Amino acid sequence: AKQNGRDNAKFFQPHMAKEVTSHFQKEQEVQKALDCDQFYLVFQPQIDTRSGAVFGFEALIRWQHPEKGLIGPMDFVPLAEESNLICRIGEWVLEKTLQTQVNWLESGITATPIAVNISGRHFISEGFLAFITDLLKRYEVPGNLIKIEITEGVFIHDMALCIEIMAGLKALGVEISVDDFGTGYSSLHYLKRLPLDTLKIDKSFVCEIGDQAEGDKICEAVVQLAQNLELNVIAEGVETSQQAEVLNQLGCYLHQGYYYDRPLSETAARVILKAQQSH
Ligand code: C2E
Ligand code: CA
Ligand code: CA
Ligand code: CA
Q1: Torsion angle of alpha carbons 134, 132, 95, 260, nearest 10°?
Q2: pTM for this predicted structure
Q3: Would the CB of 151 count as within 6 Å of ligand 1?
Q4: Which of 60, 85, 209 to mutate to test the pocket of ligand 1 (most atoms within 8 A of CB)?
Q5: In whole angstroms, how far apart are CA 136 and each of 51, 145, 146, 191?
Q6: What's the confidence (pLDDT) of residue 3?
Q7: Which residues of the chain are under the pLDDT cut of 50?
């Protein structure tokens, strides 16, 4: 038994070897997906309920795997975030988003911003700001056509660096939203100091509206916080008319969720904009 104990501590067990291999293989598969153009973006409309108009979209990544079929981001983004792979993915998403904007502008659509999700690791990485600067120049697209969504976790790493990068983005006209707001390290301290534009209420709070009083209370608190700090506030994951109504009553008029639209193909998103803008 003692022998086994020592072996267990010292040596790789077969199941561990398998885990490591599959982890490595998965990373290689993600890299291959980038090289072979297996990713694509879908676009979920964001609605201003005061006018009913779509005022923007969120770009969400999808993986069309040649054998496994459609894979959602929860099944590869966390793995990619363990290495610089997430930076390659982020760069791909940014470039694809700007290509989409060029397509839309060329087809006569009025400028409508698209928000992209950027991992904290990528956001504070060297070259991030230079990459966006170059990209905007290369595609000749104004910075206010993209927005960056980042989660709160990134702020605790290096406040000064975050402020510097955000100031650089601001100078380009790129707005910044705090994604999944309320689920991370909320601190009034950083909220006041950072040049933010929007708080995005996480869907875990929105989905508790109505059936749990706390859901309403948390949404109300976030809306009030945003108002006090003069930030925009948008609710994600709005699925029912009741949730929409409560949010409107709280003063949160920017909504995103299945109640309005699922994430759409580039073409379907463009059709919505065309129809809206021909009125
Ligand atoms: P997120 O940024 O919080 O995105 C919102 C997620 O909620 C999306 O899931 C969206 O499809 C889903 N959703 C939208 N409306 C509703 C609704 O009414 N009800 C419910 N239950 N869900 C709704 P998705 O596309 O599977 O993305 C999951 C997460 O993966 C995202 O959460 C984001 O953290 C990450 N992700 C997605 N695309 C990218 C990307 O391009 N880059 C990075 N770094 N992360 C991404
Ligand atoms: Ca997001
Ligand atoms: Ca969320
Ligand atoms: Ca998220």
Answers
A1: -150
A2: 0.93
A3: no
A4: 60
A5: 30, 10, 10, 27
A6: 47
A7: 1-8
Q: Which two tokens mark 33?
A: 């997906």
Q: What CA–CA distance (Å, rounded) separates 219 from 224?
A: 9
Confirm or reject: Cβ of 60 under 6 Å from ligand 1: yes
Contact in structure between 47 and 54 (CB atoms under 8 Å): yes
How many angstroms separate the alpha carbon of residue 191 from the centre of ligand 1? 23
Rounded Cα distance between 250 and 213, Å, is 14
- For ligand 2, the distance from its centroid to the CA atom of residue 58, given in whole angstroms, is 7
Judge if the beta carbon of residue 236 lies within 6 A of ligand 1: yes
Please state the atom number of ligand 1 nearest to the C-alpha of residue 200: 3
What's the confidence (pLDDT) of residue 12? 58
pLDDT of residue 154: 84
The DSSP code for 264 is: B
First to last CA, the chain: 79
pLDDT at 192: 85
